[in-house]
Amino acid sequence: MATLKVPAHVPAPSEDAEQLRKAFEGWGTNEQLIIDILAHRNAAQRNLIRKTYREAYGEDLLKSLDEELSSDFERAVVLFTLDPAERDAFLAHEATKRFTSSHWVLMEIACTRSSHELFNVRKAYHDLYKKSLEEDVAHHTKGDYRKLLVPLVSAFRYQGEEVNMTLARSEAKILREKISDKQYSDEEVIRIVTTRSKAQLNATLNHYNTAFGNAINKADPEDEFLKLLRAAIKCLTVPEKYFEKVLRQAINKLGTDEWALTRVVATRAEVDMVRIKEEYQRRNSVTLEKAIAGDTSGDYEKMLLALIGAGDV
Amino acid sequence: MATLKVPAHVPAPSEDAEQLRKAFEGWGTNEQLIIDILAHRNAAQRNLIRKTYREAYGEDLLKSLDEELSSDFERAVVLFTLDPAERDAFLAHEATKRFTSSHWVLMEIACTRSSHELFNVRKAYHDLYKKSLEEDVAHHTKGDYRKLLVPLVSAFRYQGEEVNMTLARSEAKILREKISDKQYSDEEVIRIVTTRSKAQLNATLNHYNTAFGNAINKADPEDEFLKLLRAAIKCLTVPEKYFEKVLRQAINKLGTDEWALTRVVATRAEVDMVRIKEEYQRRNSVTLEKAIAGDTSGDYEKMLLALIGAGDV
């Protein structure tokens, strides 16, 4: 469930566009007005505002935001304003670039989106970068990471709930053998994790747990590749727990990890942030609102809190 | 260009459905009438006929065809009648099954369809088999074949004509090195062939040819995996030459290879059969019509000839 709050009566896109233009004009920028509008419109509404804004002022709203805002606040507003598929394409593209490269972001996008959402990201990637997502991922990764990440971002998993229990048992056994042998990047492990439906994978992991008495996630915490593989499995089966941990680590870090915090809030506010907040409170005995308020400040804080549904519209 | 001939005035789908029903009824089946209708309607029209038929007679047209027809004629009519995405999903599914398994058919479907067509095959595969295409391919192949085929069927290649010449040169060099070392299944070779756009791959191969003086297709004709890799490259860059060769081998074989012949005719009649026929005549000094007429007979022959545009509507 989304934490995004949209007012009962939403102004016309032309009115929102006009208000935003006013917020940019004159001395200083009216940040509160920007938050009041953009943090309280859904993806379709934001797209319409962008379209109307371009028609009225001959400039992309994102470019105006880029000129008027700065730093973490800018990144939060721009990321959230983007259409979800475009936003993921943008984040994935960043994640293949040298100075912002991240196997984790690629894995997160590949494993927590639905099959159709991920395909829409691949379409947006063509449009934005004149290349395919998988060719950039393949080109900019190597070894075991390439073996895992290319099929992850290329997957179009079956989304039905049907489960084949015989298969779940046989593949749990394969996973067990390979993991006992520390062959984390074995091609059978990669095949199972990258191609099976989420429902099927869940059945396989349940069987693993029952038959072998411990969760797959307990193995060898020092291996970097295994960490990524475990996180992929978590994203595929219990995404809210994965996101809770990313938020926890981002906030608890000495010096908040704003990139991770902004990314999770901007990408999940319209999806499952209610569940993530529940997980966060259960695990940290403090609400996510309180944690974010204690760790951030100013307009950036206001933007994040608006997106996670703190306060009224 | 398609060889499929659709009459200037096409009867209403309900009329076609009624005629087909009549063709099935009474003593014997009216095969000519079936050919006259189904071999002369485009994909959208055939879909409408199937829909109307189901509504009128409570049975799938494909099931009726299956009951009334047999052998090669049946396969040709049924394959052609299927919607292109469904047909490819059906062929790909067959190609992952034990007794009809074929790396070649999987490669052909992955490499000769457009990116969006291939994605539609993956969607149809979900609907028909409650699984993903890539999970079946990964599950039923191994070793080098899996390394090549899984990314091929999962690809969503960029389809623009933009070409990066620096990249073409550097990747031609990579291909040259690996192929000189007979490392045909090297992960860099696989990466280049499975992720680059067709235009980019073409530029890379042109550079290969210019810089190294011989085509990539000349290497080591005895290696089975290399044969498949070479065929993939051919499918991606000059599909009509690939299909010409499949037809030539199917027809020249001692005992025609009807499966290959039917597959190519049924899948290409609505796409590029005009070009394939030109290639065929150039390479064999005989028209494809004549070659097929000499090698097949009866209703099967009539169906194939209708699809490759022999005679009038």
Can you describe this structure in just a few lines?
2 copies of one chain form a homodimer. Helices cover 71% and strands 0% of the residues of chain A. Chain A has 19 helices and no strands.
Could you walk me through the main structural features you see in this protein, from its secondary elements to its overall organization?
- Two copies of one chain form a homodimer.
- Chain A is mainly α.
- Chain A has four domains: 13-69, Annexin (Annexin V, domain 1, Orthogonal Bundle); 84-154, Orthogonal Bundle (Annexin V, domain 1), CATH 1.10.220.10; 165-237, Annexin V, domain 1 (Orthogonal Bundle); 239-307, Annexin (Annexin V, domain 1).
- Helix content of chain A is 71%, strand content 0%.
- Chain A contains 19 helices and no strands.
- In chain A, helix 6 packs parallel to helix 9 (133-140), helix 7 packs parallel to helix 14 (224-237) and helix 15 (239-252) crosses helix 17 (273-284).
- The first copy, chain A, is globular, with a radius of gyration of 21 Å.
- The two termini of chain A are 17 Å apart.
- The A-B interface holds A 119, 122-123, 126, 130-135, 138-139, 146-147, 150-151, 154-160, 162, 187, 191, 194-197 and B 119, 122-123, 126, 130-135, 138-139, 146-147, 150-151, 154-160, 162, 187, 191, 194-197.
